[in-house]
Design brief:
This protein has eight helices and 14 strands. By secondary structure, it is an alpha/beta fold.
């Protein structure tokens, strides 16, 4: 499993990249954490913010949970709509703010999730707070928000080099596909990295540059409180102990 996960870049609205995302990162045991949370809270309705290619939404739908998957990358959502159980998912090409703008989605969900890198793609405080407030509006009064973020002191980005991450994967219909991750800049809480996708059969190279923000526990608690959340719990991330936090907040 590649801990770099979903990268916040417009390239994920590129149809060819979206189609190979799952074959390049097929090990999604990380999602067991969120399936277990749905069981822990008895969630019958879930909003997955930043759903990407929809693997988690499909898992929930096959368990009989009513789920809404939202992602601004239309190409990724198009892939999600081809998966088992996709016909039982409501798909939204947009953000949590877009979902919350519709009265039909307000105060409807037992659990909201942001898996993988989603919580770290919000670089500006105003954008992050707007996202949290929108999610809060979508949750029932006793609902929960759960997301993960990396522990800054672990400095996991130091392992994001071409030498350590380069690989070639044989993808059905595409042939060999190469990719890697290379950090290009670290500026305080902000880490920027490149991750090209190269289709070796025809030589097409699609470049991606992304930035993630590594917030502190104090900053996470303050922003969640400001957005209206309470009983904020910071757990060790089950699939990456010592390297990531699992944040659970009550609405």
């Amino acid at each position: 499993m590649k801990y770099v996960g979903v990268m916040p870049d417009a390239v994920f609205d590129h149809p060819r990249v979206a189609r190979v995302y799952d074959p390049l990162d097929p090990d999604r045991r990380d999602l067991e954490t969120y399936v277990n949370l749905a069981d822990e809270f008895g969630a019958a309705t879930v909003l997955d913010v930043g759903c990407g290619t929809g693997t988690f939404c499909s898992l929930l739908a096959e368990r009989g949970i009513r789920v809404v998957g939202a992602d601004p990358a239309g190409a990724s959502v198009a892939v999600a709509q081809t998966k088992p159980g996709a016909d039982r998912v409501t798909w939204v090409v947009g953000t949590a703010v877009d979902v919350a703008a519709e009265p039909a989605h307000q105060h409807q969900y037992d659990l909201a999730t942001m898996t993988a890198n989603v919580a770290q793609v919000f670089l500006e405080d105003e954008e992050w707070l707007a996202n949290l407030r929108a999610i809060h509006m979508c949750l029932r009064p006793d609902g929960h928000l759960a997301f993960e973020t990396r522990v800054p002191s672990d400095r996991g980005w130091e392992q994001w080099t071409k030498e350590l991450t380069q690989r070639v994967v044989e993808v059905e219909g595409e042939g060999p596909v190469e990719d890697w991750v290379q950090v290009t800049k670290v500026d305080g809480e902000f880490v920027t990295f490149d991750s090209p996708t190269i289709f070796l059969a025809d030589g097409e190279r699609i470049d991606s540059t992304s930035t993630l923000r590594f917030r502190t526990q104090e900053a996470l608690r303050q922003s969640l409180s400001k957005a209206g959340f309470s009983r904020i719990e910071i757990r060790d991330l089950p699939y990456a102990p010592g390297r990531g936090w699992l944040i659970v907040a009550h609405a």
